[in-house]
Amino acid sequence: MMRPASRPAHTLAVLGWWLLAISLLVVLIIGLLELIPIFRHRGSTLADTPLVNTPPSTRWIIIGVVLTGFTLIGTFAYSMVVMGETVSPDGQPALTIEIVGHRWWWEARYPRTRSSGSFTTANELHIPVGVPVRLQVASADVIHSFWIPRLHGKIDVIPGVRNQFWIRADSAGRYRGQCAEYCGLQHSNMAVYVTAESADRFRSWLAAQSRPAVVPPDGEAARGVHRFMETCALCHTVRGTEASGVIGPDLTHVASRATIAGGELTNNRGNLAGWVVNAPSLKPGTLMPRIDLEPSELRAVVSYLETLR
C-alpha cells in the first residue's frame, strides 16, 4: 500500500504516512517523559527520597489533554477529507464487475458488453488501465474484506449485503489483492490478482473469456472430458458443455489463469494434478474433496483442463 498505483491509493498512502509519523511522535514524547525521572533520580534510593505531600499540578494535565484533543480532531478531520476524495471516482465507471467472496476464493462476474457476452471467472480480474471500474461486492458465506492495496482501500464483503466500491489503475501491471477480514482456516490464502492493460488488450480478453469452451475432438484430452463430467460437473461449470455446477469456480477458461486454489498455487500441470486428486492436502479446509482417479484418468482430466484457455 506504500507503493500506490492510482490516485486514491496515493491519497490513502499519504494519510498512512502522516498517521505513522504522528504515532511515532507520540511514542517518542511518552518515552522521553518516562526517561526524565529515571535519569533525574539515578543512583538514589528510597531512603534518599523525602516523603512530602506535594499538591498535584494540573498544568501538565491540561497541556496533555489539549494536545491530545487537537491531535485526535486533526487526524479525524484529515481522515474525513481523504474519505471524501476517494469515495467516488472522477468519471463514469467503464464497467461494473460483481465480486462474490467464498471460502476461500473470489468469484468475478462480468456483464454483457457490446463486444462480448457475460461470463464468470475466479481469483483474477482484468480491467482497462486509466479508467475507473465499479465493483459490487457480496459474500456467499461469511464476512470477507476485498483489498487491492496498490489500487484502493478495503471494502467489507458481508452476507446478505451488496456493497459498492471502485478501483482504477493509472499504469499497466499486475496487482495482488487479499482478503483482509479473518474468515477461517485459509484466510491468508484467499488472494486475488488484478491485471490492468490497454483498452485493446482488455477487449480481446473480454471476447476470449466470453466464448464457450472448445471440446477436444480426440486424444487424451477427449478421454478426459467423460471422466470430468462424471467427477467434477456437479460442482463446476464449463460453458458449452453439460457441466453446470455452482459450488466451485467456473472452469471454462481455467488454463488461462496464472493461479489456482484461490491464488495459492501457480497454474501448472503438476499443481493442477495435485489439486484435482487431493486438494485438502494442499489447502486444508477447502470444500474441494479428494477424488480417487487412476493415474491414466488423472492425466486425461488434466490434459482436458489444459485445453480450457
Strand order of the largest sheet: 3-2-1-5-8
CATH topology annotation of the largest domain: Immunoglobulin-like
Q: If classified by CATH, what would the architecture of the largest domain be?
A: Sandwich
Biggest sheet details: 5 strands, mixed
Give the N-to-C terminal Cα separation: 32 Å
- Give the SSE string: HHEEEEEEEEEEHHEEHH
Instruction: Give the overall shape.
Output: elongated
- CATH superfamily of the largest domain, please? Cupredoxins -  blue copper proteins
Number of strands: 12
C-alpha Rg (nearest Å): 27 Å
Strand content: 15-25%
Total number of domains:
3
Secondary-structure-derived class:
alpha+beta
Number of helices, counting only DSSP H or I runs of 4 residues or more: 6
Give a short summary of the structure:
The protein is α+β, with helices and mostly antiparallel strands and 309 residues long.
Task: Pick out its properties.
309 residues, alpha+beta, Immunoglobulin-like, 5-stranded mixed beta sheet, elongated
Please, could you describe this protein's structure?
The structure is a single chain. With 309 residues, the chain is an alpha+beta fold. It has 3 domains: 1-34 and 58-87, no CATH class; 96-210, Cupredoxins -  blue copper proteins (Immunoglobulin-like), CATH 2.60.40; 219-305, Cupredoxins -  blue copper proteins (Immunoglobulin-like, Sandwich), CATH 2.60.40. It is 36% helix and 19% strand. The chain has helices at residues 7-40, 59-86, 199-210, 219-231, 269-282, 295-305; strands at 96-102, 105-110, 119-122, 124-128, 133-139, 144-147, 154-157, 163-167, 173-179, 191-197, 259-260, 265-266. A hairpin with a 4-residue loop joins strand 11 (259-260) and strand 12. Helix 4 packs across helix 6. The protein is elongated. It starts with 6 loop residues before the first helix and ends with a helix. The mean pLDDT is 91.
